[in-house]
């Protein structure tokens, strides 16, 4: 059994990170103290899952109105519908995978990809193999990779300068390292990094690795939510950070991810702060839901 200090603990001391952690804690505590949470917590959880899924799909280019997501039942008609359906399926099951996550995070990630990709995808539920690539993380990358439309002189959309996804061998090694680190946190003693820091690292690492052929963004954001539940910061899953990420915008998301990938102290701190700001915006969204419930509007 490990008794050493959590390797992620030093990240909590980077400039600006203690303040980000404290602000997130305050925001989450305020939401959990709302009087509606005493009577209708399960409804707030369900609404947060729906809104988080809608926002996660929007970040992948399927920006549907909330009411459209709420009323639709067919999510296989086209690419956008499939993206929304993937986000909904992953969001619905993420909170049920907590016990497995504690001892086998990789098994959970495989399950999330199977949910997102569906049985018809021959690569569903397993990481990329040698020679297999990963879909672009952001819609603008997809547009840029396709180039300008035929017959058009318009330039491709600008994209952030993100490095290519690592090869399958590096992905497998880094996933094993991440899994070992997460499992050790549940077994070891000593100083541990705050939940926000752990969630941000898991989120960033999965975006960096793009371990699956598709849906890596949806899976990374769902994994962040699972960490926040497992670490006790958001045990009822009522703080949809995906909503905050969408509100902050994909440009800011890409820039902050670039900082994480650079691995500098400023870059890492900036990424953690970005995840913290998104989480605070998610708590604001659920606070508005609670207020609407209190007024009898929901």
TrEMBL record:
<dbReference type="InterPro" id="IPR036597">
    <property type="entry name" value="Fido-like_dom_sf"/>
</dbReference>
<dbReference type="InterPro" id="IPR003812">
    <property type="entry name" value="Fido"/>
</dbReference>
<protein>
    <submittedName>
        <fullName>Oxidoreductase</fullName>
    </submittedName>
</protein>
<feature type="domain" description="Fido">
    <location>
        <begin position="104"/>
        <end position="274"/>
    </location>
</feature>
């Amino acid at each position: 059994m490990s008794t050493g200090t959590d390797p992620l603990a030093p990240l909590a001391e980077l400039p600006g990170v203690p303040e980000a952690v404290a602000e997130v804690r305050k925001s989450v505590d305020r939401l959990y103290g709302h009087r509606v949470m005493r009577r209708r917590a399960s409804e707030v959880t369900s609404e947060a899952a729906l809104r988080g899924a809608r926002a996660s799909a929007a970040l992948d280019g399927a920006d549907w109105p909330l009411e459209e997501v709420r009323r639709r039942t067919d999510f296989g008609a086209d690419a956008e519908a499939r993206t929304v359906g993937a986000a909904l399926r992953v969001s619905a099951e993420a909170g049920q995978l907590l016990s497995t996550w504690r001892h086998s995070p990789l098994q959970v990630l495989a399950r999330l990809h199977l949910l997102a990709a569906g049985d018809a995808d021959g690569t569903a539920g397993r990481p990329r193999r040698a020679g297999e690539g990963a879909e672009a993380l952001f819609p603008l990358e997809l547009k840029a990779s396709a180039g300008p439309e035929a017959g058009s002189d318009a330039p491709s959309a600008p994209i952030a300068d993100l490095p290519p996804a690592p090869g399958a061998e590096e992905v497998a090694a880094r996933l094993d390292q991440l899994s070992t680190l997460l499992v050790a946190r549940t077994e070891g003693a000593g100083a541990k990094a705050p939940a926000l820091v752990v969630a941000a690292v898991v989120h960033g690492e999965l975006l960096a690795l793009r371990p699956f052929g598709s849906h890596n963004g949806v899976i990374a954001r769902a994994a962040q939510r699972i960490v926040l539940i497992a670490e006790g910061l958001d045990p009822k899953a009522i703080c949809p950070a995906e909503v905050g990420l969408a509100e902050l915008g994909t440009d800011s998301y890409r820039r902050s991810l670039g900082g994480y990938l650079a691995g500098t102290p400023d870059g890492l701190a900036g990424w953690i702060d970005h995840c913290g700001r998104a989480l605070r915006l998610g708590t604001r969204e659920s606070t508005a839901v609670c207020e609407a419930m209190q007024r009898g509007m929901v």
